[in-house]
Design goal:
This is histidine kinase. The chain is an alpha+beta fold. The chain is about 50% helix and about 15% strand. The protein folds into four domains: about 1-70; about 90-210, Beta-Lactamase, CATH 3.30.450; about 210-285, Helix Hairpins (Orthogonal Bundle), CATH 1.10.287; about 285-435, Heat Shock Protein 90, CATH 3.30.565.10. The protein has helices spanning about 1-10, 25-70, 75-90, 125-135, 180-245, 250-285, 295-305, 330-350, 405-415; strands spanning about 95-100, 105-110, 140, 150-160, 160-170, 290-295, 315-320, 325-330, 355-360, 365-370, 420-425, 430-435. The strands form three sheets. The chain has a five-stranded antiparallel β-sheet, with helices on both faces. Strands 7-9-10-12-11 form a five-stranded mixed β-sheet. A hairpin with a 2-residue loop joins strand 4 (about 150-160) and strand 5 (about 160-170).
Amino acid sequence: SFLSIALFDFFFVPPRFTFAVSDVGYLLTFVVMLVIALLISGLTLRVRAQAETARERERRTAALYAMSRDLAGIRGRGELVGAVTRHVQETFGAPTQILLPNETGRLEAPIGAVPSPAYPLDEKEQSVAAWVFGRGRVAGAGTDTLPAATGLYVPLIGSTGIIGVLGVRPTDPKRFQDPGVLHLLETFAGQAAVALERTLLAERAQREQVEIEAERLRTSLLSSLSHDLRTPLGAITGALSSLLEDRGTMSEATRRDLLQAALEESQRMNRLIGNLLDMIRVESGTLSVQRDWQPLEEPVGVALIRLEDRLRDHPVHVRLPPDLPLVPIDGVLIEQVFINLLENAVKYTPSGTPIEITATAVDGAVRVDVADHGPGLPAGEEARIFEKFYRVPAATATGGVGLGLTIVRGIITAHGGRIWAENRPGGGALFRFTLPLSGPPHVGVPAEAEVA
């Protein structure tokens, strides 16, 4: 402003090319010009400062929005911690670390997160972070609290309390003495706390759900075992006690009937325990499949022979085309599939009703149908019947733990096929499963296979 007035005086006010003023009126002009120039320059500086503040606010808002957008789509704790540290490092240009309490309460990088090599955490820094975690106040480099620390630590405060600490190792600690910069860091910490709390609550809810499901399964298993083991044990005990207490008055036919009853009930217990062992193999993923190319007639025939006594009141019609190709299967496991499906049909259908087994080649696989003429499946329960311990309530049911169809699904899945159930149009249930004619053998089976 002064320079512009001096130049105006030098070039335009007579006498020109000198700083002398011949007319005193020009002095008033100079004063007015100086005041106006000072006002304009002040306003210009203020507008420039406001523009710079607006740009800085825009950059901060964009940084916060970018982190919020990334955190919204992340569910894993490790990925979430990685996203937060990445955004904080990009915004503040300093190594960043998030510390969460472990089972013992010691702060450490959470499981699944990659510790920053540029942020070594020694005992001194650990103690400062623990102080911040315990008191919920900012401390460390650039603050009045524990300023000898290398890092600046901000508490992660959620709705349920302090859940962790955000640490930043600045190259210039004085930068965070700016209230705006420190407030921005605290805002980042607040967003991170909300996202982490959401993840921690989800993990806790999942663990509780798993515990509830495990308890439900244990209860169902104990309830089923207490009923299904007590029944055959009672029959065996009764038959053997009668034989022991006999004083020679019992006929040979009666003795044979009692022994036959004890044998049948022991076989029933053996099947029950076998199903439990098979279920353990399916759940643990140790179900090994030794596939070999063989005709489907072999496992079907063996299953019918093994169930000959139980099928005496249910005629079984087997229709396998003569041109049915060989299938790569584990004969013992597929035999168990047919046994479980046939036993299921016997259990839930009236005496005298037939059971049908058919097979056909379709789209690089063999599809097998096992159909009965019973009451069918409850509407909407076609998928649930493959769940562990699930049993369809029916008057003709004769007990069972509810594992047979779950084991069937596990075996079929291990072969690379799929199984599903539906109601027949004319009445009865229809179980269908496919066995691929190609593909590498599957070594194991997942704990819970998808149901079509």
